[in-house]
Amino acid sequence: MANDPVCGMQVDAREAAGKSEYGGHTYYFCAPGCKAEFDQNPTNYAKNSVAGHKRRKRGGHRRRLRLSPWLIATPVVAIVAAIVVAFVLISGSSGTTEPASEVAGQTSTVSFTVEAGDDGAGNNSFFDPDTIRGKAGDVIELVVTNPGSVSHNLRLSGPDKKYGTGDDFESEPFAIGPGETGRAVVKIDSPGTYPFRCDFHPALQVGTLVLS
Ligand SMILES: [Cu+2]
To answer: How far apart are CA 158 and CA 155, in angstroms?
Structure first.
């Protein structure tokens, strides 16, 4: 088994959804979204960064956190590390908790919390609620919590209701690890029903944003 360097899931190399060569190493991915993310920023994920992928600050300045493989193999230590990382993020030494609550400089006026979880073994991933109702034109913050055991994210199809076309809204961080919280800030001006999904579990973990 290999580890998907983006979301940290275990991937059987023979059944991987994609692979990339980087720095003389082969990486396997559970989903096309993970491969695309890796290919854009391989240095963020290559070697030793499996569980430690911790993310971009606003303004393009990147924060990197590399954990050695033994940490990943030792859940207790990994949990402690995650708590430390969360503390560092919350304590304000990073820009990550700055109001991601804006779209083009606008502050969100409505906030919804969505669970992106699984059954505790990485299966049956879900969003709860899987239908969110808001108003077209509002700047809406989606707070995405992950009570599950593997990484999830939330990608909202943009105004065109299609994924991967450049107008999507994506949670930040891209991969929300177990116990972590991410955010997406959304603004769509036309009423309608807009699908969202987890890029790591795109077939199963889906929902809709209904804007009136
Ligand atoms: Cu997921």
So the answer is: 9
Q: What separation in Å is there between the alpha carbon of 125 and the centre of ligand 1? A: 6
Domain boundaries, the chain: 2-59, 110-211
pLDDT digits (tens, 9 = 90+) for 52-68: 444 444 444 455 555 56
Given a contact cutoff of 8 angstroms between Cβ atoms, the answer to whether 20 and 39 are in contact is yes
- pTM attached to this predicted model: 0.55
Give 1 Cα–ligand 1 centroid separation in angstroms.
Answer: 19
- Look at residue 72 in the predicted model and tell me its pLDDT: 56
Q: How far is the CA of 152 from the centre of ligand 1 (A)?
A: 4
CA of 151 to the centre of ligand 1 (A): 6
Cα 202 to averaged position of ligand 1 atoms, centre (Å): 7
**Best CATH choice for the domain 110-211 from the list 3.40.50.1980, 2.60.40.420, 3.40.50.2300, 3.40.30.10:** 2.60.40.420
**SS3 category, 37:** helix
Contact between 25 and 47 (Cβ < 8 Å):
yes
Ranking 2-16, 33-47, 74-88, 177-191 by mean pLDDT, the lowest is 74-88
Q: How far is the CA of 69 from the centre of ligand 1 (A)?
A: 23
pLDDT of residue 94: 39
Report, as an integer, the average pLDDT of 9-36.
90
Distance separating alpha carbons of residues 67 and 83, to the nearest angstrom: 14
Cα of 132 from ligand 1 centre, angstroms: 18
